[in-house]
Amino acid sequence: MEAQNWLPPRPRMSRAVQTAIWARQAQWLLSQSRRRFGPMFTLEIAYEGKWVIVSDPELVKQVFTGDPGVFHAGEGNDVLRPLLGENSLLVLDEAPHMSQRKLLLPPFHGKRMEGYEATMREIAVREIESWPTGVPYRLRPRMQAMTLEIIIETVFGVHGGDRLDDLRAALRSFLDLLTNPRMLVPMLAIGPDRIRLYPPFRRRVDRVAELILAVVAGRRRAADLAERDDILSLLVAAHHEDGSPMSDVEIHDELLTLLVAGHETTATALSWAVERLIRHPEKLARLREEVEAGEDAYLTATIQETLRLRPVISIVIRRLTEAIELGGYDLPAGVAVVPSIHLVHRDPAIYPEPERFRPERFLEAPPGTYTWIPFGGGVRRCLGAAFAQQEMAIVLRELVARRTITPTDPAPERNFRRAITETPRRNAEVVLG
Ligand code: HEM
Hints:
Blueprint: H1 15-37, E1 40-45, E2 49-54, H2 57-64, E3 71-72, H3 73-76, H4 81-84, H5 94-104, H6 110-129, E4 136-138, H7 139-156, H8 162-178, H9 181-190, H10 192-195, H11 199-220, H12 231-237, H13 248-278, H14 281-292, H15 297-309, E5 318-320, E6 324-326, E7 329-331, E8 336-339, H16 341-345, H17 361-364, H18 385-402, E9 405-407, E10 415-418, E11 421-424, E12 429-432
Bound molecules: protoporphyrin IX containing FE.
Protoporphyrin IX containing FE binds next to helix 13 and helix 18.
């Protein structure tokens, strides 16, 4: 097709209306627009500007494998910069991104991951054993507590004591504000720089920084640094290519990034896994049987199907630094190209009966690189993808082996958008037995 010198079609709604719908019903807006305009369309969101949404796997591949100098993900995540800091992996691009990513990759490698298994299991068992039976119980807040505990212990290597209590409380309060649904519209409307000045935000950001910097300072002095395998210790010992160590501020920004990127997301994915499983008792029974037999294939497929059907994040963003041709359109510099995880995962041409929860589909065919994208892709693919899937497997294995789980209401839970993530509206309400 000959390139056309205009943007793909867009809904005939004002920017303000699109922003308001986006903030509450992002997946609905995506699906409706896909139905009306086809696999490529334009949305306009307040602070973000123009987004060209793509949902065809061939175009998604072009975006994920495109030149990182042209497709700026860091700039696309600009909204997070004042919260996570200038050095955060999420907000950097090009050489600074690659250099920081290289420092962060080793702690997430396979061998290291095995080292986190015991901690993950211990925390999961302790948490699950504390849950009440026979009464309606909302799992999402407990999943959050569990994933926060796991990330604090594996990332910071802080086990017990006052310091852990202070850190947990400060992080909880910061993360609660960050994921408060009421924050999204103001954040999109006035931009993060001014939000950063809002006193409740400032206080929380400063308190978290103070505590993280204290842990970093203590770790720099630790005599057993070389033997420790937590992520903070690995970063303290790491060196840039020029031989210089990471600064305190760099380490602070990356630790906070790991916490923010890794905790709410995994807790939400776990909540959805339970929400879907209990509404398909035959799948839950099969999972329990296989787990008890020591088989992991169905467990893995269940996690993959959950992340397909209920992706925690609906889109990823790449802002163009120069004009490109994509899908028959000449897109100008400055617009963002936005692969939609939600739309790719609901495409009936890729997934027959896309609305059905059927883990079996991933036993029949493994997930494809550009058709199963809950963790994004290319040089920006989620650094914690293996960490998250391992954590989900451990928690689900322990949960189904130890408890019966039934829904309080047979009706599926609908989506509820909390800032960036899509969560189950009733917080994964269950009755445990
Ligand atoms: C189910 C849980 C999770 C989901 C669904 C998820 C999803 C994502 C997505 C969609 C991206 C953007 C990728 C892109 O732009 O192409 C991302 C980036 C990232 N995630 Fe995750 N994530 C999860 C868990 C984690 C965990 C546990 C950690 C760390 C402990 C983590 C750390 C990161 C980091 C550091 C990035 C930025 C990578 C970069 O820009 O180079 N995530 N994640």
